Amino acid sequence: MISKKMKNALGGSSLIRAMFEEGHRLAGIYGPENVFDFSIGNPNVPAPERVKTAIKEILDEEDPVVLHGYMSNAGFEDVREAIAQDINKKYGLNLTFKNVVMAVGAGSGLQVVFRTILDPGDEVITLAPFFGPYRGYVADNGGKLVIVPTHIGTFQPDLAAIEAAITPNTKAVMINNPNNPTGVIYREDTIKGIAAVLDKKSEEYGHCIYLISDDPYRELVYDDVEVPYTLKYYKNTFVVYSYSKSLSLPGERIGYIAIHPEMEDAEDTVQCLAMATRDLGYTNAPALFQKVIAKCLNESVDVNVYKKNRDLLYNHLLSLGFECAKPEGAFYLFVKSMIPDDNAFCDAAKKHNILIVPGSFFGCPGYFRIAYCTSYAKIEKSLDAWTKLAKEFAK
Amino acid sequence: MISKKMKNALGGSSLIRAMFEEGHRLAGIYGPENVFDFSIGNPNVPAPERVKTAIKEILDEEDPVVLHGYMSNAGFEDVREAIAQDINKKYGLNLTFKNVVMAVGAGSGLQVVFRTILDPGDEVITLAPFFGPYRGYVADNGGKLVIVPTHIGTFQPDLAAIEAAITPNTKAVMINNPNNPTGVIYREDTIKGIAAVLDKKSEEYGHCIYLISDDPYRELVYDDVEVPYTLKYYKNTFVVYSYSKSLSLPGERIGYIAIHPEMEDAEDTVQCLAMATRDLGYTNAPALFQKVIAKCLNESVDVNVYKKNRDLLYNHLLSLGFECAKPEGAFYLFVKSMIPDDNAFCDAAKKHNILIVPGSFFGCPGYFRIAYCTSYAKIEKSLDAWTKLAKEFAK
């Protein structure tokens, strides 16, 4: 017998993935060219060519026993040091390998952080809309997710609301910048504001409140907007990073956790992060791709591909009467549903072979998310379907 | 503040890894050539050359967007199908890709299985000595590990004891064959016996009791002993497999879970395994290495290297008066400590720069584990240290 929890979850929580599978099903019926799958954040821009040459170099240069072998659970020291130096160079900090733990992508990184810090009943604040799986990551580790809405429309953090939500049980505030699902970017003033609230409340309650910054979209930014680096503004910060989007390697599960060198109990914390990596069964981040990352720190993908997609789809949706904050980063549009029931709206879209994810999944009903990391030609071809969908709901 | 649980675990549960780190420390003091680190199962035989050529072929042949992209949480279908056909060919079964879910090594595979099947309070029986982290994998998913000793000395399963330990709350029996830490192999009769007990008890209690077979050492077998393939003997079996040892790829975190096509609720179960893979934050097994595995199904490492190591060390230890079951597989010796306190004995060994793991970690005090997956030369050099250690405790 499958566990009761899993039995209940079957067909339930797996919304984005169910969409992904539904896309495969529809493609079988209508042909893949006639299905507009905007459900999943699977980058369509290839990884930089350097990834390929780096892998070949590494295979030719390194002893396979070391290359493919176990290393410290925290990862290869030289790779962690290279990442630390890269952070220092970009953001003027003073990290060493002792402040970096390699992770099996950002999802695993978050599981590892929560396992490290949460006691039963601890509260973690996150800002809606937020990435749905946060719910499970917090619950798995005995925590309680406390959802604080952003300013609806701009989706910028509401500092007063965050402060009001902090209780003596608050262990961490978690942000995602650039944000999935909205694509908005929190500016420096906002991060400074959050840091000030956390400093004040940490002092008031006599224990540190962590800031967790989930940063996989850091490099996917348009229009020269700057994404503040959270570690610069608050000591007790975990940055959780993944190369899934910035190097288009989502299937390879490679990322890291970085902490401020002056985080409370920094050394013990890193040791616990490494232990959590082992205890969760991951053991360590995939070895070869750790080495690849060290050789690709200066690489990037062509974000203009995403920007062109954004502009085409954003402008078309606005012309149809949709309301949407213009995203400055990531590759998502978070659009107001034309009816209050976002699930019903997404079902209606499916009849036009458009696959999108209801805002409810992100803690923000009445909206839906479009992942526009697909081909420009596919988006062009979808415009007609969007027009038909909008007409169906025209007032 | 780190969580209380992690704080307590610091310096506690991480025994093998603490040894591994201790080895690094001692190497710094005495030189790596003078430290005899037998603590961790990190293969010293290189991965087959085919791994390297396969990676290069894949990089040259496949579209990087697909190769490094997300796939179904269960893994690439073509890889799962190739593994299923390989199992069918070797063991005369009828699996398809629908019975295989790719895993981030065996550790993650076990986490995924327990997450799929365990309700709070469910019991999982395992046979001591057993791989220490089983404790955490079961506890993480709300289960209770029930430890049933094997016949001490031969370390073969005690069928009557297993049967007596099964209660209405028993959800699964977990075995590890060839066994870590003893290196003994459970024969066909034993597996048939366990299957018969499980059939009888499943019927008695009106619900299936799963068999979980943790098989990472399947191909590391000496002296032409045959390891029975558990799926052939019991329908409700999960085989958890890893290429960490059979292809010397422990750092790459690649393995799979295979179930019998006629397992109860097979289709739902596989869907839950895939969901669990996602929910734990792994999302999927590393993409490139999934593809590598499909090209390396006929590859193997040279087990004679391990066999030579075994013979050298086993014979020497016996000549010194140590008692030990001769291992037929894996790369471990499980030796009776010369004093009842195995922790004290391992501490004494450390003074001779010998790093070994106390049997208590494996649920079997009074013994210690030697991982002999190191170089022959290193083992030769260690013989003297073993002699001195034995003399210290000579009666």
Which features characterize this protein?
homodimer; 395 residues; alpha/beta; seven-stranded mixed sheet; 12 strands; globular
Structural class designation of chain A: alpha/beta
Major beta sheet summary of chain A: 7 strands, mixed
Rg measurement of chain A, Å: 21 Å
Quaternary state, please?
homodimer
Q: How would the global form of chain A be characterised? A: globular
- CA(first)-CA(last) distance of chain A: 50 Å
Regions of chain A with pLDDT < 50 over 5+ consecutive residues?
none
Q: Please, could you describe this protein's structure?
A:
- The structure is a homodimer of 395-residue chains.
- Chain A has 395 residues and is α/β, with parallel strands linked by helices.
- Helices cover 43% and strands 14% of the residues of chain A.
- Chain A has 15 helices and twelve strands.
- Chain A has a seven-stranded mixed β-sheet with strand order 2-8-7-6-5-3-4, sandwiched between helices. A three-stranded antiparallel β-sheet of chain A has the order 9-12-11.
- In chain A, strand 3, helix 7 (134-140) and strand 4 form a beta-alpha-beta unit.
